[in-house]
Amino acid sequence: MSNIGSYEARVKDFNWKMAEVELGYGNNGKYNIGYYCSDRICEMGNGTKAALTWEGYTGETKQYTFDDVRIYSNSFATILRETGLEIGDRICVFMDRIPELYISFVGILKMGGIVQPLFSAFGEDALVMRLEDAKTKAIISTRKHLGKVRRIRSMLPELLWVIVVDAGDRPLERGEIAFSMEQAPKVDTIEIANVGPETPSVLHYTSGTTGKPKGALHVHSSIVAQAITSKWVLDVRPDDIYWCTADPGWVTGTSYGIIGPWANGITQVVLDAGFSANKWYAFIEKHKVTVWYSAPTAIRLLMKEGLEPVSKHNLSTLRHLISVGEPLNAEAVIWSEKAYGKPFHDSYWQTETGSIVISNYPGMKIKPGSMGRPFPGITAAVLNPKTYEPIQTVGTVGLIGLKPGWPSMFRMYWDNKETYDKKFHNGWYICGDRSSIDSEGYYWFVGRDDDVINTAGHLVGPFEIESALLEHPSVAESAAVGKPDPINMEVVKAFIALKPGFVRSDDLTMDIMNYIRKRLSPLAMPQEIEFVDSLPKTRSGKIMRRLLRAKEWGEEIGDISTLEND
Amino acid sequence: MAEDIKKTIIEYVRKEYLDEDSDQQITEDTKLITSGIVDSFSMVSLKMFLEKKFQVKIPDDKATPEAFDSVNNIINLLKEFTPL
Question: What does the pLDDT look like over A501-510, one tens digit per residue?
Fold first, then answer.
């Protein structure tokens, strides 16, 4: 029997107060996520239980109990306080998937800071945009990424401290602090910041069609939704070994790679290594993983490797498989059943929702290719894109809308009320995705409603890429769109018109690709560049990305009456 | 000849995929993909470099993470398509 039991019964009976009671949220006036992910688990008698088993790419492993997480997070909270940082200060974690990333996240929350996780492969431009916007006060990082941070520091007047967790005896510069989690004095007790349920906790940046990336701000009570969805959707149980393959630079890696499992006192395992089918299967076998939360891109890569690597490993411990990031195609669901004897259950949510809002649940019929049904307590609908009224006709495509009010919903875009307000219409939060609903209430994803590119489950903003492209000396104008990709769903393709004097060549293509990779991130790097004489524009001079995108996807071009040169 | 190829690839990886301030050493056995120096997205530009530099065409299904996981693996891959 799964944790959720009967989906229909849960939908009928559910209210968020029940989820609070289940977590004990607010008992004795405690609301801090950091407390619920460490001290509370120890108070429940599970201090010696493994919280994190970490494995590096060389096979080196480290293990931390919940009591270790409690003490080491206290140490992080203490050093942050000693530097003068206070409740509400934005503190960035910018590291690969090392134990310090997970534990400092808890420590920042305990001292009342707002954690700003940033993907460690971000380049300098991507970092500056996000750190400048958040007016970040401190960054916790490693030697590997210190060079990048140093090169942008002069552009960040608000940045006071850079804490380097593996500095050793290397010389540091002014404003940098060496802090070794395991060598620092152990701090058994601290005063955990007395936050309320609405106190800001985590600031995740996400990309949009226009403008710079936006910081989606979450609050401490988000844990109520993250804990109950971990229990009912991921179906985590006390004896589970749970593996979330997402990087905590993105929201899945924090909501379900830190908060959800640890709030439930679950042992999680982390592999800090690039993708390899054999490595992944060996990891599952070695650590006896029971619950595996991954992404369609990874699943399709595993499919590509076939059944042979599966047959070389004992994967019989796997009990429940879940996927997130982009729609999971029906073939992948069917293949996973063949390969692992269990289907992957697709789940749907986004940075702004903070937790899973639509999903396939354990024990419920899976319809391969469907996103599933709304989580109990979530009121969802498919809306008419003009009136924002719910569409009643089965199978009609519209915009996914959610009634605001669940605990993990973002509370604002950082310093950007105008964009935040635009996300709401007629009392609905508009997700920006299109879907239909079938006669049994299952949602079927159709696509984005904007120009944002979903590559390997990560949203990349075309504006950010185009702005960076214009900084390249050869580029006169450009447009970035998503093009179909069998593994990543979409990859970035750039259309570029060159400045006079520059000649199209493979060398120039490579130079531009690498330029974007270093300035922004590998995800933003165009996987293909097409040089053009000019780009299609409206009569007012706006580049018509949708026309270029439609051509890539073989879709109808639609209304081109505003095209400048048709 | 093989030494020159090795040196060329190592230099390219160091220049394009390591931070300019990095003190990390790259040898022919250094894990490139599993260590995260090169990720699956960045493999596209590395493949393009190899094809251009060594005048070969590497089929997409051969450009796997394993085949790109070290300079030695890359040299073995190149040998399949060109007499080095």
Answer: 999 999 999 9
| Alpha-carbon torsion angle A163, A167, A170, A172, nearest 10 | 0
pLDDT band at B83 (very low <50, low <70, confident <90, very high): low
Q: Give B59→chain A minimum CA distance, Å.
A: 14
CB contact under 8 A, B52 and A506: yes
The count of domains in chain B is 1
For A343-368, the pLDDT digits (tens) are 999 999 999 999 999 999 999 999 99
Angstrom distance (rounded) from CA A475 to CA A453: 21
| Residue A13: both structure tokens together | 């009976």
The string of DSSP letters for A472-483 reads: STTEEEEEEEEE
Which H or E element spans position A458? strand A458-460
Q: What's B68's domain CATH number?
A: 1.10.1200.10
Whether residue B2 is predicted with pLDDT greater than 80 in this model: the reply is no
Report chain A residues whose CB lies below 8 A from the CB of B19: 144-145, 147-148
Determine whether the interchain pair A513/B35 forms a contact, defined as Cβ–Cβ distance below 8 Å: no
Range of the domain at B59: 2-81
Q: Is A553 on the interface with B (CB under 8 A)?
A: no
The Cα diameter of chain B in Å comes to 36
Are the beta carbons of B34 and A274 separated by less than 8 Å?
A: yes
**pLDDT above 80: residue A26:** yes
What is the per-residue DSSP string for A282-343? HHHHHHT--EEEE-HHHHHHHHHH-SHHHHTS--TT--EEEE-SSPPPHHHHHHHHHHHSSP
pLDDT of residue B61: 87
CB-count burial class (<10 Å; 0-12, 13-18, 19+) for A403: middle
Distance from C-alpha of A444 to C-alpha of A235, rounded to nearest angstrom: 23
pLDDT at A73 over 90: yes
| Domains in chain A: ranges and CATH | 7-434 (3.40.50.12780), 453-553 (3.30.300.30)
Q: Which residues between 397 and 456 in chain A have a beta carbon less than 8 angstroms from any beta carbon of chain B? A: 455-456
From B22, B35, B38, residue closest to A57, measured CB to CB: B35
Query: The tokens 């206070």 sit on which residue?
Result: A86
Burial of A243 (0-12, 13-18, 19+ CB in 10 A): buried
- What is the model's pLDDT at position A448? 84
Per-residue pLDDT at A559 = 67
Q: Which of A144, A150, A525 sits opposite B42 (nearest CB)?
A: A525
pTM of the predicted protein model = 0.93
How many angstroms away from the CA of A139 is the closest CA of chain B?
18
Question: What pLDDT score was predicted for residue B84?
Answer: 55
